[in-house]
Amino acid sequence: MFTTCQGAQLRTLLFCTAIVPFLPSLASAQGVGQRTETPEQDIIVVEGKAILSQTAIGAEEARRELKTVPGAIGLVEAEVFLDDFAQSIGDTLLFTPGVFADTSAQREARLSIRGSGLNSGFERRGLTVRRDGVPISRASGSTEFQEVDPLTIDYIEVYKGANGLAYGAASLGGAINIVTPTGLTQKERFTARMEGGSFGTVRASASAASADGPWDLYVGTTGLQSDGYREQSAVNSVYNHTNLGYRFGSGVETRFYLTALSDNFELAGALSFDDALNDPTSAGRPVTIGPFFPGGPVTVLDPGPVADDWDRNLDVVRLANKTVVPLGEASLELGAWYAYRDLDHAITRFAGIIDQQEDEFGGFFRFSGDASLGGLPVSWLVGGEGATSTNDAKRFENIDGSNGNLRARSDQKASNLLAYGQLDIEMTSRLSAILGAQYLSTRRENEDVLNTANGEREDEAFNPRFGLLYQASENSQLFANVSKSFEPATISDLTAGGILDFTPLRAQEAWTAEIGYRGQSRYLAWDIAFYRSWIEDEFVDLAQEGFNGAVTATFNADETVHQGAEVGVDVFLTPQEREVRLLWRNIYTFNDFFFTSNPSDLDGQSFQLDGNELAGVPRHVYIGELRAEHDRWYAALNLRYIPDGPFADYTNSFEVPGYELLGVTAGFDVTEKVRVFASAENLTDEVYISNVATVADFERQGGNIFTPGQGRGFFGGVSVGF
């Protein structure tokens, strides 16, 4: 009977039979049920851990709070990725079950949780991203992951699916909250870091932290330069993040956040399949047509990324405030933010040069506390959020990398109104239930002041949630939940990044069921979840023919299903009290995403897709690490294994090959204040495809849609902290 999992029309939650052969060899470290400290420590209740402030808590206290969530969540501390030359937020989450990240360009990662934003372009959808609880996802619906500097992160909270309701999230992928060091939580008062390596890469970072009376301050700055693995893929970026807090005598606390960055990187473009495997360091080829007869003329439609200097340059200034007012058994959190964004993005001759300046304002509140309901202890939360943005979106001709004539100019406006609430009811000493709901109203408007590509779209939805959390033992928990998600299209989706006419896409909606189990014993820690999402009007991206995968359009795909398994297990191979400790840390993610109908408006064409897999993400992803640790040093061997690559198209006519990547990392504390570290990536120099710009039918269309992954690279550095 297990063979029923192979038929798309008969797929059900019994898909778990497909992963049984993998279970004995699975491990991970970034589910919240797992940790790398001594297993004998109580992982459910952290005793004696004081909250340093109302606006800033450390990772241990955050872990304790996350364990009250009846769903799949993760917590990633900075020490996990700091010495591995993480360039993007995707690099920081590799060891988190259920998260898929790959590289589409230098400094740019595609990040997907449970198939969210499956093949979106540079402006990503499907996730609600916040920094210290304040949104950095734009009012227009997308997120620029370029805004995140991994070296100014303390820890990251990952709320998969509806588990992000505490931050108002109702998107399919959930929410990510990036927590910044503060003057209260940063261990060192001053840090300096210098590193470099392959492809002409140099990165320098420095931070300062202080706490004096009611004041505390953290400032971190990072500069990155690299020539890149491929031709036309250089990076030149500078980031600064400042976090200033003040505690009033009344108990009220306020905290200001200032982010300023200039992130500039060249774009090499996508390649044909043969070029991606045989000449992976090259940039995209010119797009030509003809000759249509022997000796006939050849027409160059686009000279390619080198001649036209494709790049993406983003400047951002973001100022935010968060204030917490204690009110007896309750607490009121208020916040506001302003962001200015300047984008200069040169791509194909057809698309031109995108030039945008955006202003965004927003505010939020969260009111929470403890009470009693029918004699049962209850924790409650209500919140609201509003945001609005205006974007002056221009598009120029691309003449050898310089602005030509103005082709299009649009006034783009976006607004969101959000309200949510949640009750956490302690039914018994072991069982708690969560009831929650969210209301979201959005508006997207595009007014073309030069042409006639005007349009607007309004959407609203009510999204309920129900969950159960059972304390199976002192150190293990079972959970289950059912929820509805809702995601309106971004302005980038509605206008193909400002390149095509306005398309009034329907909002994507889904119901998701989830079950899971997490906990820890002396030699084992685990975090396991299974889910199934029934989706209507899923957003599907298609690369347009003949433009090196640089231009994509978004369509609705009617009915689809996303289901999968997120499995993490840490195996402590030696007792943790030994001088040298061995840890086996890996994850396994199973992605089963498929059509359950034939889309009616996919690229204006008729396709028989019922039962076909969704393109762009592999079914099986395994990442593992064997790690030896000492009080003064560590060394680790890691593996990323993709048995079979994703389909490149929705007709499933072409499948990308799988790959295996080996890496090593090591570090040594020269003194208590000085550490040296090094890492090697893709030791075997395997040639592989890391990203695909999906099309409808590759066998018919072909196309330059493949991005090769990075070859062998070596990096090392030194950090000082005191």
Describe the 3D structure:
There is one protein chain. This protein is mainly beta. The protein has helices spanning 59-66, 89-92, 273-278, 491-495, 698-701, and strands at 73-77, 99-105, 108-113, 128-131, 134-135, 155-160, 174-179, 190-197, 201-212, 215-226, 235-247, 253-266, 287-289, 299-302, 311-327, 330-346, 353-373, 376-399, 402-426, 431-448, 455-473, 476-487, 508-520, 524-536, 539-543, 552-556, 559-572, 581-595, 620-629, 633-647, 655-669, 674-681, 689-692, 706-708, 713-721. Mean pLDDT is 86; it is low at 1-29 and 36-51.
Shape: globular
User: What gap, in angstroms, lies between the N and C termini?
Assistant: 62 Å
Helix content: under 10%
Could you report the average pLDDT, rounded to the nearest whole number? 86
Jot down its keywords:
722 residues, mainly beta, 22-stranded antiparallel β-barrel, 5-stranded mixed β-sheet, 5 helices, 35 strands, 4% helix
Summarize the structure.
With 722 residues, this protein is mostly beta strands. The chain has helices at residues 59-66, 89-92, 273-278, 491-495, 698-701, and strands spanning 73-77, 99-105, 108-113, 128-131, 134-135, 155-160, 174-179, 190-197, 201-212, 215-226, 235-247, 253-266, 287-289, 299-302, 311-327, 330-346, 353-373, 376-399, 402-426, 431-448, 455-473, 476-487, 508-520, 524-536, 539-543, 552-556, 559-572, 581-595, 620-629, 633-647, 655-669, 674-681, 689-692, 706-708, 713-721.
